[in-house]
Amino acid sequence: MKTVQASRSITIPDGVEVEIKARSVTVTGPRGTLSRDFKHINMDLRKTDNTVKVDIWFATRKELACVRTVCSHIDNMLVGVTRGFLYKMRFVYSHFPINVSLSGKNVEIRNFLGEKRVRKVELLEGVEYIRSADVKDQIELTGNDITLVSLTAAKIQQATNIRHKDLRKFLDGIYVSEKGPIKVVEE
């Protein structure tokens, strides 16, 4: 059965500009500009004074789910241009210490399980790599676009997959320990 109309709205925070043209959304804020294309979803995207309204007419259940998904994507863009996203990753090892360094735009993982092979993961556009000074064996990935930051973290984690060994015993790797928007320091 089809629903006649479903709609959701998102409030635009101060200092952020949203431009919608033919289901292509561009968000500009203090940290930069993000744009995303929603042309593959048949729905209405309209901007009023300080809200973005998403409407869909005569939709099935799967099409109704897209309304909330599009709103979440736009909300993540708004958070990205105002605060940004931070992913913290910890090194886990039992014997051989994992050595991670940055060379150019590549993250190089050395001495994983004592192997000589150097694993290289490319940092995606707009993602910054920081080695934590206060915490041992931790790196931080920051950026405006949540998809690029999380994809970089996933690639680093997958570079340290263990194959042909018992996964219950060999727990070594680089894992995401904390993720979310960058915390605002209030004074």
Explain what this protein looks like in three dimensions.
This protein is α+β, with helices and mostly antiparallel strands. The protein is built from two helices and 13 strands. The chain has helices at residues 61-82, 146-159, and strands spanning 3-11, 17-21, 24-29, 32-37, 44-47, 51-59, 85-92, 99-103, 106-110, 119-122, 128-131, 138-143, 173-181. Strand 2 and strand 3 form a beta hairpin. The radius of gyration is 21 Å and the shape is elongated. The chain starts with a strand and ends in a 6-residue tail after the last strand.
The proportion of strand residues reads 35-45%
Largest sheet: 4 strands, antiparallel
- State the end-to-end distance: 53 Å
Strand order of the largest sheet: 11-12-7-13
Class from helix and strand fractions: alpha+beta
Shape: elongated
Task: Let me know the number of strands.
Answer: 13
Average pLDDT rating:
94
What's the oligomerization state? single chain
Rounded Rg = 21 Å
Query: Which regions contain 5 or more consecutive residues with pLDDT less than 50?
Result: none
> What share of residues is helical?
10-25%
Order of helices and strands: EEEEEEHEEEEEEHE
Number of helices: 2
